[in-house]
Design goal:
The structure holds 2 protein chains of 2 kinds. By secondary structure, chain A is an all-beta fold. In chain A, 0% of the residues lie in helices and 53% in strands. In chain A, the strands form 2 sheets. In chain A, strands 2, 4, 5, 6, 9, 10 and 11 form a 7-stranded mixed β-sheet that branches. In chain A, a hairpin with a 3-residue loop joins strand 4 and strand 5. Chain B is mainly β. Chain B is 0% helix and 45% strand. Chain B is built from no helices and 9 strands. In chain B, the strands form 2 sheets. Chain B has a 5-stranded mixed β-sheet with strand order 1-9-8-3-4, with no helix packed on it. Chain B has a 4-stranded antiparallel β-sheet with strand order 2-7-6-5, with no helix packed on it. Classes of the chains: A mainly beta, B mainly beta.
Chain lengths: 113, 111
Amino acid sequence: KAGVTQTPRYLIKTRGQQVTLSCSPISGHRSVSWYQQTPGQGLQFLFEYFSETQRNKGNFPGRFSGRQFSNSRSEMNVSTLELGDSALYLCASSWGTGSYEQYFGPGTRLTVT
Amino acid sequence: DAKTTQPNSMESNEEEPVHLPCNHSTISGTDYIHWYRQLPSQGPEYVIHGLTSNVNNRMASLAIAEDRKSSTLILHRATLRDAAVYYCIRRGETSGSRLTFGEGTQLTVNP
């Protein structure tokens, strides 16, 4: 069974631009969560989607948004990029929402200049 | 946020057992204990989880104290590939799929 895939793997953007990251969950998984990882703040939860609905949201500004499609694939968008948005963005999928094990992708490394 | 406390770092020798402690003194009766690890340059990887009784799987064992205020992840024979940051996470009924990561324990395995 293929794992969680994220595209692109690396991205360089300029401050003020917007970016869209993509995540394909493991086949059959309906829950997708997004995390931001930085050296200073560690791993922080952004949001969770299940059955195309946002079920949970972390403490991030409205510039961070996401969506989930009917095939469970998910995208996250960051508008008006700031230097502090430079991070590794990780996607995780699980069978359902709740206390199931999460399977993480390799992440997208975003650099904002 | 659901809080756990772990040592910042631990060191072990290859092929020896490793006991990684975690304190969760304010845990509620319905919170699960989950362990994930993150190898260098990779996303986190699920290791094991439990509620009350000890749990075993092919990767590790999880020993949960009788009062549930602490737990220990046991790697029976450490290998170089086990060098990673290990995260102990509480997950409650309202957590959904949300994982609240702390700083974790950096495990170094010496050859």
